[in-house]
Queue: 4 jobs
Job 1
Amino acid sequence: MKLYLALNEHGTHGDIALHTKLAVLSARKHSDLDIKMLYIGRRNEFTQWLEQHGVEILDQHLPYYDLIKRLSDEGKYNLSTVGHWLRTNVCLTTNDDYVFYSDIDILFLSNPIGLEQEPSYFMAAPEFKKDGWNYFNAGVMHINVRKFQETYNEFEKYIRKNIEEKTYQFHDQIAYNTFYRGKWEKLALEMNWKVYWGANKEAKILHFHGPKLGAINAILSGQWNWNNEHGRQIGSIFAQHISSYRYYIAFLLDYIDELSHHEREFIIDIHYRMSKDFDISRYKPDTTFMNFKMFPED
């Protein structure tokens, strides 16, 4: 089966690039998935690394890129979101019956068996809470390509309209949750296991949902900005589940030999500091936002 990832050139540097490398290396170790990268941007050293590790780069054109670019030029939207929206290109890129999609901030922990199922549209797991099926996380999806192809034109119209009208209040995950409400099926939690859900030997795909390595490093270094809503939320997830992050960061050490010297030292340093006592209580973490429900009923 094919695994589709998506990225624009903005994500070929920093911790997004590092997470992508870890996703690829772990997929190669634990699965026989055929990895494809949906990509917008110039080729560079990072895309060369992907190709050297068996990833096929598929240059893309996002059909509604001009809309996002115009709104970005007007200061109404963030152009860096293009990589997230690229997931909608999966059904435009392949005629396979079923494919697997994931965000780049995942780590394969074992072979993702269970993909032999045939979803009516797609399968997905909850966003924050393990029992929170009211609102799904689109970071890992098992997709029925033909059903997506049948609905794509209407989906794109819906996307264009809402990006234009709602701008910053509208993003790809909201689009999927609202447009396909009632049409998706439950994906096993182990296929999109969030780091903050705790140690789980049965987890197959680990998702660094929320705090990424760059944020973790900034928090541990005392350089994280807690003075805005996004900063407080990301910091609070880490602070209230630090033991889970300590447990899973150790898994990254399995892949450091295939990373650059800088990336290797970066992970080793985070792992070392995670092993030490870290008093984060002074930041008064609050994760009540994780009780979010998009719809009035499940």
Job 2
Amino acid sequence: MIHPGIFQVNLSIMIKKKLLQINSVINSGSTGRIAEDIGVKAMDNGWESYIAYGRNDGQSLSNKIKIGNKWDIRWHGIQTRLFDRHGFASKKATVKLVKQIQKIGPDIIHLHNLHGYYLNIEILFNYLADADIPIVWTLHDCWPMTGHCPYFSYVKCDRWKTHCHNCPQKTNYPSSLCLDRSSQNHKLKQRFFCSVKNMTIVPVSNWLSDIVSKSYFRSYPHRVIHNGVNTNIFSLDKDGTNVRVKYHLQNRMVLLGVAGVWEERKGLRDFIELSRKIPEDVSIVLVGLTEKQIRELPPNIIGIKRTESIYELAELYNAADLFVNPTWEDNFPTTNLEALACGTPVLTYATGGSVEAVTHDTGFVVEQGGIDGILRCVETIKGSKKASYSVACRKRAVENYNKDDRYNEYIRLYEELL
């Protein structure tokens, strides 16, 4: 005779908990890879994993849910360009997503980037406010707390603390060429986002945590969980020799820059200025450029288009003597972590959370726009050699930014919320 208590225990073991994540992309770029890795970690712990995404249909070990189609994204873009309604289009696509979520019945819903021309926040949050489901929201930038922009430090704007209006970055991503709805958007975001009761905010840097505490999210519980990287792939044993041979960099000092999109706030102009002052035996390699940007580079900068291959990136980090991140606005860039894991020291501007990964024995922090400061750091590396930093860089990455350790923090958070 089977005791009923045993049957109940076995039944509870058989029923897997379900995690559903929402992000603009899947297994592409930093946020897409983060969501993918969290999904894998959840599955390792016995969960079912679903990832709903807007574009960049990459491979995934999780169950994929495509939100909308190309036409939805284009129409959302038109709504944004003309009427500054980013996050308020894609109605049919979001209604369909809500029906899929209801069918799945997730135990946890984990939000990432909700901007990106693919989602209607009013429809989504009206559902989330009524659903009895714990929400985790990882903030990768400041868009959830502003009426328009993902970052505001470059233009030194603090209107988000009280109420956004007359946005000084209206024509920047997500660009509006006509109307400025930053005031209305800010009111609506606060109304919809703060309608959810059971929500935990996860800023990925201490810098962003401070901003959260000054925003309309201040009453929500929040905890910092830093980003992590694959320290097995980004490691010291990846040989950069082939990269040096391919780009004719033998016997040269290599300064590396990597970005998903190179724009003014990422420091492309600073690299061009730096290229005019570096010694003849120093080369700059920039990864993530468009073909047009590559054509316009000065001759002593080697431009490489964006790569989704983390193995190729690991070789590039290993080939470099110094990773340079002259970012003017940033949260907690994973590129810094990838460089450290490959034993490459990091130089960053004193920007946002970018400085949090760097210590005195793993790299340098210089003031924004400090080209002369960068040159002094270059001379320091030339004198002491990269090898004198590599062990400390690798140790810091393994001890603090191993993705398995960091994303286990999310699994513990899920369990706490349940």
Job 3
Amino acid sequence: NMNDASTRIENYCYQLGLALGLAFQTQDDLLDLIGTPDTTGKTLFADLRDGTHTLFTQYIFECGNEKERMELRQILGSNVGAEDRNRVLDLFQRSGALAHGRAQVEQYLQKSQNLIDSGPLCREARDGFNHLIEVLRQRDTHWRVEH
């Protein structure tokens, strides 16, 4: 039945788009923390200064200890800048938020890869998506800051 087929394809596209989108967004939030303005072209800690909640702040609020949550509350919405870099990175590192976020990115990329490998794509499309995943993987390692 044509209808079933098109529903299946629609569902497939949705799943793949979602996995790739989440990988990209989570990476973006990660780069806001660990990137530098010259590598990302974005202002350092823009999300934190705006008080924007991300997977990373959420993790600290849900899994961090009282001290970490308190530190985060002081940082969120405050005017953090380059001079606070070590303090901020230390909090996200120590709480496990960075490791958690990186693992999530990896999971989303893996899910994308599985969908690409097993999906109804022609070779050109598969090559295109594989290239995109490669770019996303390099985007992460390129700005990896070991702290």
Job 4
Amino acid sequence: MRRKMNPITVKEIVKATGGTLLMGKPDDVITGVKHDSRECGADDLFVAIIGENQDAHKYIGQVLENGCRAVLASREGEWLKQAETLGAAVVLVEDTVYAMGELAKYYLDTLNVKKIAVTGSVGKTSVRDMIYYVINEKYRCGRNLKNFNNFIGLPLSIFQFDDSLEVVVLEMGMSARGEISALSRAACPDIAVITNIGSSHLESLGTRENIACAKLEVLDGMRPGGQLLFDGDEPLLRAGAAHVRQDITLRPVSLTDKAADFFVSGIRAAADGTVFDLRLPDGSVWHDLRIPAPGRHLLLDAAYAAGVGYLSGVSREEAARGLADYRPAAMRQT
């Protein structure tokens, strides 16, 4: 369900983005941030993004005609006269995508929420959604819009959160080195999950070792004392994670290694899915957890979700209900 964000002022936008207020009232308030001119309303901030094929600055006049009264732009134009006539606020920045990320970081910091980050080569969306279902059994939880997980999508998702939430689950995608680091520094997660290391970025990154390093960038923005759950059967993650942050607790999750912090065992088929047991870091076991899907391919994902739930204070019963309620998006594995 989409929410309106908590109100923030133009003055806060200027401060967060490091921009210049060309015109408008610093105390004017916005309750939404949009980059699609077709969706932008009276109480929204329109972010004019320059993409590979489109420059949204050419739509500023249109959004002003439709009632929008706040604009984040990186260049001036004839529309400034229209903005002045209408009394709209205009904040000028060097790069609107970067500025939107800084505004999202500022806004997220105003919310009193626990932040959980999810990245990996495949399975990110499944794990994000499973965590959401588990956490939502105990806490009011938010998550990314659809698969909005990049420099543009993640901030737009953050602007859908409000102070009614207690936990947010943030999926983070990438196409090059440095991107996960930037997203992590914006989110400052308390808990992070790296689902696995695959081969989907070999063309751009060259080796699986480089992919592992790129995924481990999720640690860059984590709060001191944070916890990282990762595929304990992946040696690249085991070796790499140990050398990145000494103040982060590493929590390997495994279907084969009994020494892992979270160990999946007792896997059996059921008429309505797959049932398994999960041994926890304290040595206790959550018995008879169920996912409503056949086979083993979602078991590690479910273990991540239950593990995050355990570390967040969710009970076995709450985790079991959340996993049982999970429904995978059709044909979605990334």
